Design the sequence.
């Protein structure tokens, strides 16, 4: 078998890469290890409504509910409300990830991409040093697929990058380990994404409640792996639900686990190879959200590959248009949020409570650093010392 | 006492991939929709045990 591009993984990043490469005229194959695209779901299922402007998804079937913003609860329960414009990537829609992924795959196929199901990459194919495709196992058959470009869209546990000599191994401080229930028959009024912070609630992470349609909520937890113990996410999530007057009356219809890279972005391009989505560590280190970056990055990757096919050159220089592109589009923000993550990890519960108390009456529509400082000086001047690294960061990123 | 091995309980594993992404030896693989430890590569550091969100990885004799 011979293709211009072979993409490992039929998740959002893989399918969007496939679509834009195919639309540019490339001959594209997607390998999907699972028996159904998008299943099992491994995700909190939140995405920004910015996606509406991107012409990535047709119809509304993939939308479970619309969000009005985010509510963030500090360790002592102080509530800070953010309108959706200020709440970052994680508010907007709650989606059905299985339908969402299959809709993206449909667009890729419509553009001409092929999909091989239950097919797993077992190694890179090389001619000397040069990457020339993949060794593949499908059910009991083993065979080679030749391609000018190999794309690793193989998620957080990516092997493609490692095989190409890119260090993709995550440090325990750069991974959120997660579980989530979908709870139904829950009598809880909320059109907001809710987030709960605190060392006793979710060390180095948070608990989330996302409304998912009638009486149904995604309730999940992420804990920083370096602060976790065996099974801690599930134990703490069960404890949170048992202590929540509305949630404890619900029953689960789904339990899923997840692992989210909260890392600094890595190198994503080699001769004849690139990485997209979670495999490229393209998830926001603060929120853990990775859908928008998977879609944006996938598009840049697909367009880049299209140009490479046209020029018939697939070296690192040519494919680096992709890396330059994602760095400009969201790379700076991911790096800034990585630095910010490590600053926030140093905050104890008391500091988070003071911060929330300063911000609870704050009008986020008129957000600026100056007005933020005013709010803090007024309520908790001692906070300013702790926030110094934060303010430095915001100056640098301007 | 024999050497301790790290094993993933395949009845419990929910295939999140966290252990695979974090293993400093790249000793874990996804196989048949479940994480799997390659004993010849594993150095029994236990990072995967701590990372598993549902406690499905443990040391066995």
Sequence:
């Amino acid at each position: 078998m011979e293709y211009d591009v072979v993409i490992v993984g039929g998740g959002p990043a893989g399918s969007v890469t496939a679509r834009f490469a195919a639309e540019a005229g490339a001959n594209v194959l997607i390998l999907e290890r699972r028996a159904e695209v998008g299943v099992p779901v491994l995700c909190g299922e939140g995405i920004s409504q910015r996606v509406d402007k991107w012409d990535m998804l047709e119809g509304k079937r993939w939308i479970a509910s619309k969000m009005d913003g985010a509510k963030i609860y500090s360790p002592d329960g102080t509530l800070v409300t953010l309108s959706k414009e200020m709440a970052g990537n994680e508010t907007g829609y709650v989606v059905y990830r299985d339908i969402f992924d299959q809709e993206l795959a449909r667009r890729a196929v419509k553009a001409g991409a092929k999909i091989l199901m239950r097919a797993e990459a077992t190694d890179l194919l090389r001619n000397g040093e040069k990457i020339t495709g993949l060794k593949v196992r499908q059910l009991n058959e083993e065979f080679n697929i030749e391609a000018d470009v190999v794309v690793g869209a193989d998620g957080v546990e990516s092997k493609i990058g490692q095989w190409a000599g890119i260090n993709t191994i995550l440090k325990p401080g750069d991974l959120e380990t997660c579980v989530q229930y979908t709870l139904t028959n829950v009598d809880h009024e909320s059109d907001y994404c809710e987030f709960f912070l605190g060392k006793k609630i979710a060390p180095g992470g948070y608990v989330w409640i996302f409304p998912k349609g009638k009486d149904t909520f995604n309730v999940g937890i992420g804990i920083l792996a370096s602060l976790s113990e065996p099974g801690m996410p599930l134990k703490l999530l069960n404890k949170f639900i048992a202590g929540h007057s509305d949630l404890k009356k619900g029953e689960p219809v789904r339990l899923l686990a997840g692992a989210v890279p909260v890392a600094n972005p890595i190198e994503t391009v080699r001769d004849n190879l690139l990485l997209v989505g979670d495999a490229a560590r393209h998830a926001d280190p603060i929120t853990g959200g990775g859908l928008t970056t998977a879609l944006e990055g996938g598009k840049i990757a697909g367009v880049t590959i299209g140009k490479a096919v046209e020029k018939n050159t697939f070296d690192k220089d040519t494919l680096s248009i992709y890396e330059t592109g994602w760095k400009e589009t969201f790379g700076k923000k991911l790096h800034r949020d990585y630095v910010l993550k490590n600053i926030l990890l140093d905050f104890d519960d008391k500091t988070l409570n003071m911060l929330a108390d300063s911000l609870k009456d704050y009008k986020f529509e008129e957000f600026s650093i100056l007005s933020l400082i005013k709010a803090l000086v007024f309520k908790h001047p001692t906070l300013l010392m702790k926030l110094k690294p934060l303010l430095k960061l915001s100056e640098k990123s301007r | 006492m024999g050497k301790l091995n790290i094993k993933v309980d395949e009845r419990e594993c929910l295939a999140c991939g966290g252990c695979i992404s974090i293993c400093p030896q790249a000793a874990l693989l996804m196989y048949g929709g479940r994480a799997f430890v390659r004993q010849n590569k594993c150095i029994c550091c236990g990072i995967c045990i701590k990372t598993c969100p549902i406690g499905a990885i443990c040391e066995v004799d």
